[in-house]
Here is the input.
Amino acid sequence: MRNVYLAKSVDGKLSLGSELNKALFQQDLKEHEGKTYRIERVIPKRSNSQNRMYWAYLNIIEYETGNNANDLHELFKRTLLPPKFITVMGKEIKIPKSTTELTKLEFGEYLDKIGAETGVPVPDPRELENFIPNY
Here is the structure.
């Protein structure tokens, strides 16, 4: 069974949060003496609320420009994001980077680029609450 423990860096040390989490991790260490653990820094990806806001924004741009929101999505990711290179059957090909791969910060910068490109300002998410279901 694979256990996942989330920890934060606090004063240069890993903190497991609660005493219970610390005890569970200590028990896991005892049960798996000599085993290797992987520690990875978590980089927050674009959130679901950012995704909903993004598609609402694309719909606003669609209304302003007459261009389809899905087409706008393809245009923006192909022109405003760096390409991604993958190897398929031994051949390297260039594909557009997916917006799902962006961190929260990168996604915010991406939205700012769209605003600069289109002249349609990025809406305040609080203004969209009445327009996006489950926002």
Q: What stands out?
A: The chain has a mean pLDDT of 87. The two ends are 35 Å apart (CA to CA). The chain has two domains: 1-42, 48-128. The first helix runs from residue 19 to 31.
